[in-house]
Amino acid sequence: MTTDTTTKDVAPGANAPGETVLDARGVTMRFGGLTAVRNVNLTVNSGEIVGLIGPNGAGKTTFFNCLTGLYIPTEGEVRYKGQILPPKSFKVTAAGIARTFQNIRLFANMTVLENVLVGRHTRTKEGLWSALLRGPGFHKAEAASRERAMELLAFVGLDAKAEHLARNLPYGEQRKLEIARALASEPGLLLLDEPTAGMNPQETRTTEELVFAIRDKGIAVLVIEHDMRFIFNLCDRVAVLVQGEKLVEGDSATVQGDERVVAAYLGEPFEDAPGQEEIAEVEAAEAHAEATTDDAPGKENDR
Ligand SMILES: Nc1ncnc2c1ncn2[C@@H]1O[C@H](COP(=O)(O)OP(=O)(O)OP(=O)(O)O)[C@@H](O)[C@H]1O
């Protein structure tokens, strides 16, 4: 598979340099008694690839859902290029945010090209009557849409498979098709939810190149991923969510070197973690208790 990542031209939804593309403030999402996301602030600027990492159940996908209108946050607000986002997925897509899903959501029995054409509906101006009557306006718009869809398929390296059924693509290519479909709405911000899940190392590397190429077209990217190598190679900034809260945010080196992040990934407590002195004290107390127990009468019966 060849991914055309050399094209440096600018995408129709491209952002102006220096622009704050996404500004999420104080986002909290509760499900009954469970607070899945708590008071999270996150910005994504033009030209950036930002990573969102955290252990399973940390609230990453819930946060994505709050950004894309799938959930209305219990508290907080989300702005895209300064405008508060409407609380409906299709309106968020029309505003300029596109996403892929953790579990692939393609139309399995449609062709690769048709899947991308579906992704273009928010950018197609032709109305229902024009489509039904199939007038000249419709045919012109349809031809332009096809041309753009084929460009996007070439961009992700799937143009040769345009007429294949989506369900017949290998898993890694289905993930790329999802990205092409998301790009078809001409976004300024692309959210990727675990884009390399289930991929082999070679596919992961081409996905990495593809994300860089998307950034180079002027589209900002926010990506959730469990593959740390992928994240730290790719991202300008990484935010770490743990138990719904943002624990750390910074460049790859800062985040990788933060001992709270290491602790969170190992499932150890990260708040008030004991220092060397406390550990030595506890070990001494345990040794003392053991010695006392060994001397105590009746210890054999206790075992
Ligand atoms: N619709 C929902 N109703 C109730 N609880 C939910 C809902 N969606 C998510 N949760 C809970 O919110 C918490 C965060 O889940 P979420 O899927 O956002 O985590 P995640 O970081 O994306 O995890 P993973 O890495 O495993 O995908 C979990 O405890 C989950 O069970």
UniProtKB/TrEMBL annotation:
Disordered: region residues: 283-303
Source lineage: Bacteria, Bacillati, Actinomycetota, Actinomycetes, Kitasatosporales
Protein name: ABC transporter ATP-binding protein
Xref: InterPro entries: AAA+_ATPase, ABC_AA/LPS_Transport, ABC_transporter-like_ATP-bd, BCA_ABC_TP_C, P-loop_NTPase
Biased composition (Basic and acidic residues): 285-303
All copies of domain ABC transporter, residue ranges: 22-268
Pfam families, per the entry: ABC_tran, BCA_ABC_TP_C
Record-level Gene Ontology MF annotations: ATP binding
SUPFAM superfamilies: P-loop containing nucleoside triphosphate hydrolases (SSF52540)
UniProt KW Chaperone keyword: no
Protein's UniProt keywords contain Repressor: no
